Amino acid sequence: xxxxxxxxxxxxxxxxxxxxxxxxxxxxxxxxxxxxxxxxxxxxxxxxxxxxxxxxxxxxxxxxxxxxxxxxxxxxxxxxxxxxxxxxxxxxxxxxxxxxxxxxxxxxxxxxxxxxxxxxxxxxxxxxxxxxxxxxxxxxxxxxxxxxxxxxxxxxxxxxxxxxxxxxxxxxxxxxxxxxxxxxxxxxxxxxxxxxxxxxxxxxxxxxxxxxxxxxxxxxxxxxxxxxxxxxxxxxxxxxxxxxxxxxxxxxxxxxxxxxxxxxxxxxxxxxxxxxxxxxxxxxxxxxxxxxxxxxxxxxxxxxxxxxxxxxxxxxxxxxxxxxxxxxxxxxxxxxxxxxxxxxxxxxxxxxxxxxxxxxxxxxxxxxxxxxxxxxxxxxxxxxxxxxxxxxxxxxxxxxxxxxxxxxxxxxxxxxxxxxxxxxxxxxxxxxxxxxxxxxxxxxxxxxxxxxxxxxxxxxxxxxxxxxxxxxxxxxxxxxxxxxxxxxxxxxxxxxxxxxxxxxxxxxxxxxxxxxxxxxxxxxxxxxxxxxxxxxxxxxxxxxxxxxxxxxxxxxxxxxxxxxxxxxxxxxxxxxxxxxxxxxxxxxxxxxxxxxxxxxxxxxxxxxxxxxxxxxxxxxxxxxxxxxxxxxxxxxxxxxxxxxxxxxxxxxxxxxxxxxxxxxxxxxxxxxxxxxxxxxxxxxxxxxxxxxxxxxxxxxxxxxxxxxxxxxxxxxxxxxxxxxxxxxxxxxx
Length: 733
Prior knowledge:
Blueprint: H1 2-8, H2 10-13, E1 47-51, E2 62-64, E3 74-75, E4 78-79, E5 84-85, H3 118-131, H4 136-153, H5 158-168, H6 174-180, H7 183-196, H8 206-220, H9 232-238, E6 263-268, H10 331-344, E7 352-355, H11 370-388, E8 393-395, H12 422-434, H13 440-448, E9 453-458, E10 461-465, H14 490-504, E11 507-511, H15 525-538, E12 543-548, E13 555-560, E14 572-578, E15 591-597, E16 604-611, E17 625-634, H16 635-639, H17 643-646, H18 666-678, H19 681-690, H20 703-713, H21 718-722
Parallel strand pairs: 6-7, 7-8, 10-11, 11-12, 12-14
Antiparallel strand pairs: 1-17, 2-3, 4-5, 6-15, 9-10, 13-14, 15-16, 16-17
């Protein structure tokens, strides 16, 4: 009965060298020193102590002035696009919203006249399906076909059916069912998925994907479809007959800095500011979002209390003014982090910033709205522009930077529904232009490429940003046309821009949010496999580096030639860096990364990781200062000794120490994985860095864990990541 009930809740659930010497024989930075000086961190700063006082001048006015640490400030933010002020009710921690505006609901158009009593007919058919003796996977796919009838004939009845099913089978509480599947929250989106997905074609895999990923494999017993095979014919067409890179390529294309030193580039990710952070509430909750006025821990409270009035005796861990491990970032921590950047850079502005997405809070679906997203983006981008100075900022959109969260709709959707998130792209384009980071022509790309773009901020460097929600498994729009690895056209855009960069002799940084590999738990197989083929074609000569975020952890992925069939260091051709988060959720310390970048090759020479320890936050109100940002490690210093693996390496490093003038390229990181296999304590050190010295990070000292993490590091696609031993990918809990 448990399985039947779970299936009946189906509708509720649907929610050395820069390159390989064999490929690039000339102008290789590993073979000969780059013209500009190697990375150096002048004016070394070991720590920065933030101010205790909130920088009130950051915003013109406040609904709640930051006069004390008993409550978070609530700045008054103007929606410049509409010349109106966002109301205090949007971010007031004690007045949680009832839900987004009903106008945010977007339905599919009916495909024809509705049959009489279609909702009753669908209800009866679903009851029969779940009561049958068919295999669970068959029940799931049959239920989807039945739901499609309702979505195509009477789409506005889908949310009501979802709420009804959710209540009937106790999937959630009655109140949560009504809020979650309201038309303007998730109800109308699922009506689109039911309507547009292909549940009838014999070759379609849409139903299997929905049953495996959205419903869940443990409930549906549906296996994930086999990944698509990109044969020579497919790849020849994709690359338009130009699959072979040029015989030689000059990577020294930039201009040295005036002082001959490296560029300083900030890589920041996952700020997740929570404007509704409630100081003095429950920080270790068992419901919803912690550090909220309605949060509680069920071991000490039954949840029956007025919002913001939970007695102290019923609080297991108090939410602190500066933040907590199970919560997103309060305003105080967000601005202290931005304040720390310039001092940590020796008192000078960074030359540029890469922000790899997710500014908006993690939240329950009913609390996310278009206005909340706009409010967050407007306030944070203004703060970044003010506090980081002259350097341009290049942003990627994250899965939480939309409403509803996780969703991005493709341009090929029918019924004109491709523009349902255009408000988001339009708003970002306007903001990035207004902040002075893009000109008007560049901003127009943001509108037409789902917040993606291709720009050249400096001679010889091209930054290409793409919306990685189109390979994120939690984007339900990806459950449509699942056999097409690029239904959105984003990878076509990326490929075409890489071809243009190759023709111009440029180096490229690819910027996105959701990573492509690691343990394979976040991305989809087909699009990340195609991305892997694209990287293989254009790295290492064009693609210098790839930058992601999303996991909140300090991670990297090495990309190898020939689909990673060999993990030898000489086969490595690209590396992606996953930046650690500013948010401490879940159980990680907030972090900032400043990179030394060669000004002519645009390769990372080193990076410097800083963090602030959350366990120190409770005592800060009794001091005269804010969070202390400490130096955690230098990548070159921590990882540049390959002595132990040198003897058995097919690609030994002279003297065992990575040369000072060699970049931290794919070969470096591939060599590191070889060294880790010999010196297993390095994997534990890496694990400490994953959570930035968090006392809550589990250790990685068993042979199983060590082997698994090395495998994750060597897996740049979801397919490769899933081949690794699972269960060791994250330090969060």
